[in-house]
Write a structure and sequence with these properties.
The protein is mainly α. The protein has two domains: 33 residues; 208 residues, MetI-like fold. Helix content is 80%, strand content 0%. The chain starts with a helix and ends with a helix.
Amino acid sequence: MNKQIEKAYAERPVNTVYQIVISVIVVACILWSGSAVEITKGGTGGLSIAGNILNGIFHPDAKLLFNFTSQGVPYLLLETVCIAFLGTLVGAFLAIPLSFLSASNLMPGPVAYIGRLVIMAVRTIPAFVYGLMFIRVSGPGAFTGLLTMSVCSIGMVSKMYIEAIEDLDTRILESLDACGCTTFQKIRYGILPQLIPNFASTVIYRFDINLRDATVLGLVGAGGIGAPLIFAMNAYRWNEAGAILVGLIILVLIVEFISTKIRVKLARG
């Protein structure tokens, strides 16, 4: 058996020219990409700023960190979580009909193709651009962040939903149909038990992403803790910036721990 394996391995087709061509293309792409990178000399100024940020993290402004008014870190973090949470929920619900319309195993080819084009178009625009657009519509504030998170969530969540729908085990539906089940019963006992764990896991994962994006959206005035952070850094108030960063680190760790537990529970049942 070993000799047969060694013989088959020795007689395997080897396309040396193809491998060389691929290697040359990869190396050329790496060199071409590297040519666009310019290493600037930050000097001691950049190192000094980095040191001030680290010093602010280790010596945060306790008054700001434990200030429970609307100007304090806890309130701003809560606003950021609410923006991410509600934006994720709205986007997840809007993605359900779009994903069913885009599933090739449920819809005709042209309908599914158009649905996928819509999803691709939604995913093309970055969250930062959506934030700037919605600020012109609804003005600065948390509602703008909610709208931005909702639209940004549709693209990714719909894509994951489509994969779950197309991976449905149709044999279960055939068995229920043979038992004389109604359409509602087939949906209740054949489709939902397969889709709900995948859908829920996708929503939780997207919430993790939105929580970080909501922080960045605050820079354009879309609510949350991003604006106070950039204002503190621009004014060189490193203790205030450190307090905000400490709050963000704690928040992300807590959310990551909880979401991981929930995803493991969904995966293992």
